[in-house]
Amino acid sequence: MDKINVHLLGRPYVELNGKRMNFPYKKAEGFFYYLCVKKNATREEIIYVLWGSDNENVGRKNLREAVYQIKKLMGKEILVTEGHTGISLNPDYMPVIDWDKVGEGYIPDSEEEVFLSHFHIKNCYEFEEWVSSMQEQYNEYIIKAVRSRLHEADKVKDVNQIQKYGNILIKRDPYNEELYKEIMEIYAAGGNYNMAIKLYYDLEKILAEDLGVEPSGEITGLFHRIFNVKGNVAQTGESWNVSFVGRTQEIYMISQCISGAGQRGKPQCVAIAGEEGVGKTALLNKVAQMVKGYQRVTLHAACYPEEKEYFLRPWNDIFWEIEQCVENGIFESSLIQEERQQIRQLLKGAASDGGEALHQPSFQSIERITIEMCRKITQRYKMVLFLDDVQWMDTMSFQLLTRLLLTVGTENILFICTYDKNSDQAVTEAFERLIRQDLIRILVIEPFNRLETEELLHKYLPQLNQEEKDKIYEMSEGNGFFLMEMINLIKEKGFTLEISPKANHVIKARLAGLPEIENEVLNCMSVFPEKIAIEELELLLPELDRLSLIRILEKLQERYLIKESLVGWNIYYEFVHRVFREYIYDRQSMGQRRIYHHMLAEYYENQGKT
Question: CA torsion sign, 373 to 374 to 376 to 377?
Answer without folding.
Answer: positive
